[in-house]
Each structure stands twice: as C-alpha cells, then as structure tokens.
Amino acid sequence: MTERRLHLNAFLMNTGHHEASWRLPESDPYAHVELGHYVHLARIAERGTFDSLFLADGPQLWGNLAQRPAGALEPLTLLTALATATEHIGLIATASTSYNSPYNLARKFASLDIISGGRAGWNIVTTAGAEAARNFGLDAEPAHAERYARAAEFLDVALKLWDSWEDDAIVADKAAGVWGDDTRVHPARHKGRYFSVEGALNVPRTPQGYPLLVQAGSSEDGKEFAARYAEAVFTAQQTIEDAQAFYADLKSRTTAAGRDPGHIKVLPGIVPVIGSTETEALAAEQVLEDHIVYAHGVGRLEALLQLPPGTLELDAELPSDLPPESVIEGAKSRYTLVVELARRERLTVRQLIGRLGGGRGHLTFAGTPEQVADAIEQWFTSGAADGFNIMPAVLPSGLDAFVDHVVPLLRARSLLREEYGPRQTLRERYGLPRPANQYVTAPAPALARV
Amino acid sequence: MTERRLHLNAFLMNTGHHEASWRLPESDPYAHVELGHYVHLARIAERGTFDSLFLADGPQLWGNLAQRPAGALEPLTLLTALATATEHIGLIATASTSYNSPYNLARKFASLDIISGGRAGWNIVTTAGAEAARNFGLDAEPAHAERYARAAEFLDVALKLWDSWEDDAIVADKAAGVWGDDTRVHPARHKGRYFSVEGALNVPRTPQGYPLLVQAGSSEDGKEFAARYAEAVFTAQQTIEDAQAFYADLKSRTTAAGRDPGHIKVLPGIVPVIGSTETEALAAEQVLEDHIVYAHGVGRLEALLQLPPGTLELDAELPSDLPPESVIEGAKSRYTLVVELARRERLTVRQLIGRLGGGRGHLTFAGTPEQVADAIEQWFTSGAADGFNIMPAVLPSGLDAFVDHVVPLLRARSLLREEYGPRQTLRERYGLPRPANQYVTAPAPALARV
After folding, report:
1. In B, which residues are within 8 Å of A73 by CB distance?
2. Counting CB atoms within 10 angstroms of each CB, which of A138, A341, B248, B445 has the fewest?
3. B424 Cβ partners below 8 Å, 6+ apart?
4. CATH homologous superfamily of A7-277+362-429
5. Looking at chain A, which residue has its C-alpha nearest residue B70?
6. How much is the mean pLDDT over chain A?
7. Is the ipTM of this complex over 0.90?
8. CATH architecture of B7-271+364-429
C-alpha cells in the first residue's frame, strides 16, 4: 500500500485572503485582472508540488467597491489561460448550479479538461444571496433546499452529458469514410423537475471522464450533497475537534451513500502566516489587522448575520438573540461558524472582524515554518484532514513563503511528494480512479485518446 | 487619409471546411479536440497578418457522427487558450443569444478581452434548429422573429453590463483605504421582455470596452440586426453581383440606423483552393469531391430544405415546389442561397452536394495564387467586400498555401499590411473606434488600465 500523502490546494484570490492585503506596499491593486499575476501564483504552487489551485466565484459584484478589490476574471476563462502556462497542477473552478445551464457548463468543463490534459475540477456551488438571483431574472434567492434539489438534478444531467460519448466512439476509418460510431453516443434524454435536456454533449469524453467534483457547503444539505457526489471537500473549521467531527461525519455519510470513504478528500482551509520567529509572524498579522477599515467590516458582518444595518456595535459582543441556523437562507454553515467563534472566545465585533478579515472564518496558522508544519501534520495524522486548502493572507508573498519554508519540512517528513513525476490527471493526483462511463458495462480504458 | 486595406479573417474548423477533408492522408481525424492543432493554425494566420480568427458554434451535437468530425472544444474556452499562444490576432467566438444568460456571457467575453489584451470578438448568433432548443428545456425552436427580438434585448443588456464600470472606477488609494469609487459603477437595472438583470458586471471595463460585435445572419431580421449592432459581418455570396447588392444594402441600412457605414465591415466567405496551375487547383478540388459520401449529403440537404427524409433523388434537380424563404424557421438566407444556386446552374442533387461540400454555400475561388489574388482584389475594389472570411477546404495545408502564396501578392499590391506593427486591439485592426461608455458624458480615454 502506498503511503498516505497530504493533498494541497492553493486558493488564489487577487492580493490575498486578508481583506486589507491590497493596501500593503507590496500589493498590486489591479492584480485581480492581471493574467500575469495569476500565472506567477500558479507557477509558485507548481514549485510547491500542490495538487491543485482553486478560484472562488459568484455571478454578482460583491460588497462595496471602496473597501477592497472587486470583480475578477471569470474562473473558467482564467483557468483555461493558466492551463497553458502550467504542466501538472489541477485547475478547480467554482461554478453555480443555480445560474447555469447544464449543457453549457458541461461543455466548458469538458473543454477545459481536454485542453489541460485532464486537470479540470469543478467546485460545485448553489450560490447564496439575492444579488446573484437578481442578475438572472429572479426577485429573490431561491430557498436553500430548493437550490440543493436543483444542484442534484444538475449533477445528474451533467454526468449523463459527460458520459454521452463512449471513450471509443471515434472510429476514424478514413478508407470506409466512417468517422464516428453513432451507436456509441448516447443522448441525455433527461426530463426532470428543473431541466429538460435531450441531446448528447458536443464534446467527446475527456481524459478524466469528467472534472474532479469538489464541494464546499457544510450545511446539512451541503454535507448530504458532498457525500453523494464530491471527491474533494473544502471546509472552514476553527478547532481540531470540530475538524475531526466534521471529517468523521462526512466519511460516514459517504459510506452510507454507498461510496468508498477514501474517495472523498477533506481539505480544511488554513491561512498560514509565517515568520522566522513566532513574534515576527504575529507582528505580520498585526500589520494586516491595522489596515482593516472597520466601518466596512461591520456592514459585511451585518449582511452575513442577516441583521439590519446599524444593529452591531463595534466594541460590544454580538447580540444574544440571533436566530438559529435553520432559518438562515444564505451561507448556513458560515453563519454558525462565525456566531460560535464569537461566543466561544467572547469576541467584540471589532475583534471578530479582525479574526474574519484574515480568512473569512478559516483558521489562521501563524508562527514559524516548523509550527505551521507541526499543525498541518497534527491535523493530517489525527483524523481532521486529508490535506489543506492553503489561503495565504497576502499574495504572492504568502504563497512564496509557504512553498519556500513549509513545503520543504512537509517533504522531509514524507508528507508531501518531492516532485510531480510523470504527468497525471487531477483525479490521479488525488488518488482517485477514473470514473466508468454509465452507458458502458465493460471497464473503461485507462485514458481516452483525447 | 490612410489607404483602405483588406481585412482578413481565418475561419478555423478542425480539418477544414470541406466535409471530406478529414479523409485525406494528411488530416488528423482527432484535430477537432487537439489544442496543438488550433495553436498551429492560429500561428499560421498570424504569419499571414490576418486581422482575426473565428470559430463557429452551436450548443448541440451536429448531424451524424459517421459522416465527419463532430463535437468540438467550446469556442470561448479554446480562444482563451489561443490568446496565450498568440500576440496580435483577434479572437472571435460564436455564442448564442437564445441559449445563454447575458450576465454569464458578458463576463466571459470581458474576461477574454482582458486576458487577450483587447482581442476578443463575439459572433452573435440566434441559433437555428430544434436540436439546440431541446438541450435547453424547449420542445421546439423559437420562431425566427422571436429569436431576433431576444437577441436585440440581449445586446442591450450586455452593453449595459460592459459599461457598468467606468474606465476610471478603480481608485486604488492605499493610504486612504479606498480601492474603488462606487459612484462610477452602474447597475444594469434592466427589466425587459426576456431578461431582468439588476446588478453591475463583476468585471471592470475591458481594453476594448466590449468585444468586437460580429454577425452573420443575412435574412431580413439578420440584416436589420447587423445594421444596428454589428461592426463586422460574415456572409455567403455566390456571385460578385449578389455580393455588391448585399454590401450596398447593408451599408445603407447601417446609415439608416444612424451609424457610420464605414463602421461595419463586410466579409464574404471564400474557400480558396490553390494550385501552381489552374489544372492542379481543379484536380485538388476533384480529389475532395471524390471523398464525399453522398448518402450523408442527401440527408443534410433534406434537413436544410426542411423536406422529409427520402424526398430528394441524387441525380435529379431539386423539386420545383419548394416553399418560399418566408415560411422557413431555420437558417433563412442559407436556404435561399442554396435553392438559387441549384436553380441558376440547374444542378442535380449530386452536383449541388459537391458544390456545398466545399464551403456549405460559400464561394470557392480555385486557381493559381494570382487568380485567387485577382478575384479578391476585384471584389474588394468593386464594392463587394471590405475583406474576406477565409475558409480553407483543408487545414492546416490550405491556410498555409494561402499565407505562403496569396498573402505575398496581396502585400505587393498594398492591399494587406506587411506586418502587424505595435500591439493593437481587434477593433483598432478593423479601423474602428473604441466605444464610449453609455454612462459617461465626457469622451472615454483611449485605453483602460486593465
């Protein structure tokens, strides 16, 4: 049996995950629309032999423009450009099941999978918030359960479309004048509650069959969805105990869904803040916190907690009469995480904003490279994580620091590959099998020609 | 005043525009899903200092697989990959207004425009055919007029979205902690018959403001749409007289729509078949015709003419009682072109299929490089064309032949640029101004920062 290895994903977001990162002298405030910036980040992550990189997304303009860099290059477009600038790293794009058509989205991911040589991944989101809904003809956000019902049907349709060409549907018999075998192409013939899709996809089956399926919702609906479909899960966990409970719960739900629990990889998000001493790391954190504009943070926190503007006081704790998660229609698990963090540590609103500014609820690992590597190893070996979603507070410097100082320690401890070795698909990097085609009874070949 | 120059677009389609091209010994039957094939073609076109390259598209699996290469990489995805492999050439993707959401599509084109440094173009199509409709929840194709009404509203929404950020909306004041100016971002607030889109785009204004708008429908609805929006028009014309009439008509419609007729470029499609002698060129054409599988062609022609299968006889002319264009709901102008071609030359079904096999209704210019250059010059200087949509019968060899043998003649006659010179946007290559932002009364700066 091969050794269990850590899976690392680089979560790229313009000048970094700390909301004030763009204000540092080193940061380029136009980085969010600079291809060169992202190419540079992708190459750093490849130097660190990460499994993948990842882009978040929502089809709306977030928050207010004054506060921090807004807008972005559309993730599937940006990742396609990055595919040509990298060789090994997986490319995971977020895309919404609520505001896309399965036929269009399935084509784009199939095309990216072919162009990247099997390195595409899809972070499946249902997209919370009324702003997005109102960009797509709706007056309000669909209910949480409704969004997940649509997501499940979307997946079923997309999987039919990705399987619609058998791996050997292309015959290419020039002499006979027969290019393809129509009996090996299967129309979706799907008629459901949300979608009606008749035809076969107009892209042949791809190197991976379909993109690695990734998911990040930690609500009840989200975990059930993940257990059924996801191969990798991003999650925000503030303590190792919470992370262990989440990990065990998700693996057991996956088993209950009839799947191998080894075929779902759990990656908590961490914000590494690295210094050559612990003091230096904490000082770097403090510099970032000093750049936060708190007036903006209050408004954002009120929106997350679904409170009217002006409710929160900066130097008081959260109100005691907040509603339970069950009535929240937005990002349910994020809501609970933030409320529990504030109550557990009795944080004022100001302190809470400071903590969230760094990673929006993800855990900060601040310290020396050894301390960060120790924390990673501890989580990895104690049933809290199969790997990590690395969310540097400042980019590119935070990713550089992680790759230069933490990665060598992880390699020395045999937790991380020394080099990529031969080309692999993203699914192979994550130690997962190529999916069989649902229309074929015989086992699929290892790799399609394309 | 600068000299009037020819505009050249390379219409790329797997192994070439002739339906039998994939059967030639030189052709790669997997070319349609090989990024390397398209990179090679794009670089040939750049060697020929073409203005742009272009990919057709429809969101359905075309025709039958036995006949010829089917499926493709999705055009926006493929062009993004080509953007990173080229420096100067414009990148025009076809996308449907009937089967996309304005918010999603506007983002993707804006992202491609930024990534390519202002080289994006959009060939706007309404997508004929029930196959596509049935992939998007409809039972049948929407009526022709309905599709065009939706297209016009789609454009209006997209133009609002592309203008939603003023060019100087990003302030980037690190000291004050102010990244952007919210007063310079304008939500679409669109409520119409087909679309309701509330917010601003989540991509800043792009180098071109928005992609070059291209159109290829030659029906009445199509020409009216082109007169209102299009900056370049692809068209199929079988004779110089027809091309002159189309050209004059479109320019006068553009004037009537209140636009400068110089701001719409007309590019008929031509299939160049080049030989060192005329006999050699005609022999090359004959080889291709000999590879046509006629049984497939009959079915395709019946579909185009909306006749029941089994109606047409291979060695007879078309039936005399075909319906008028007005009742056709599919590709109206293509229908009329094919019927008129068959009647004018009294072609049998077999002969008609042979003629259509090369360029699906586009004119073949077969001959020596001088003969092809002469025909191009004649059309260009006699009010039939502002340039050409070059559709080689076989790829890459046909594009190579055109660039190696015809392009030098066009340059010697001062009809085509000798080299690209400094970087330009696609719109600059076509000699068109950067559009002003509809929300700004002062003139726009020459180029945005991004």
Report:
1. 111, 114-115, 203
2. B445
3. B88, B118
4. Luciferase-like domain (3.20.20.30)
5. A202
6. 93
7. yes
8. Alpha-Beta Barrel (3.20)
